[in-house]
């Protein structure tokens, strides 16, 4: 699942491949923008904003994309075989003389004026990996709804941008509380650690191809809880548990240690 650190890495790859280059191929395979032609325009930059990607193009245009659960951008050299998925999953193609960027399974793809980017990302809270990072604002937004479970508050990009389901589970473990604990019931002094800890985790992984939160190198020990049920907790050896958090299509598998983390949890 793409999170703030992986989106930043995707933006770097796209920027390196496209920025400063003239587009010789443009194909947006979504009905609303299928006739849009960007050929002949220079790509100015590719900027991440939380889990969004903003590809800015000459003429005051921005191609906004969001990867959500399984979207991706792949970059190919001339003649290289495209391996990101079957052709029917391609939503965008941006080609220069030297590289071609192909967007697969993009649930959000829209062309808008650069001056109107706020329509796409203006609702986001401070970006953990962006120049607008403001820990005080992030904390205030997290605490605005005391009855809300911490896990849901962390995933709400209006509070702070960049945390996905993996970091949600890992943060709650490191804070020693369950994701179902209401924000207003956090132990004294815990809330102040949330934003700085989240930033440190994402920054530690912004340049890594494989995400690590434990500091351990073994493949089965890179994360504390996420994806580890029912294996033993790395701290206390209690079996890790998993349950969905959220409703309907927004429900996400959530991992925690019932011994190390205090607070409510769903019934088995």
Automatic annotation (TrEMBL):
InterPro entries: FPG_cat, FPG_N, H2TH_FPG, Nei2_N, Ribosomal_uS13-like_H2TH, Znf_DNA_glyclase/AP_lyase. CDD domains: AcNei2_N. Residues 2-130 form the Formamidopyrimidine-DNA glycosylase catalytic domain. The keyword Hydrolase applies. The keyword Metal-binding applies. One of its GO terms (molecular function) is damaged DNA binding. SMART domains: Fapy_DNA_glyco, H2TH. Pfam families: Fapy_DNA_glyco (PF01149), H2TH (PF06831). Residues 224-262 form the FPG-type domain. One of its GO terms (biological process) is base-excision repair. Transmembrane segments: none annotated. Belongs to the FPG family. This is DNA-(apurinic or apyrimidinic site) lyase. It comes from Streptomyces xanthii. The lineage of its organism: Bacteria, Bacillati, Actinomycetota, Actinomycetes, Kitasatosporales.
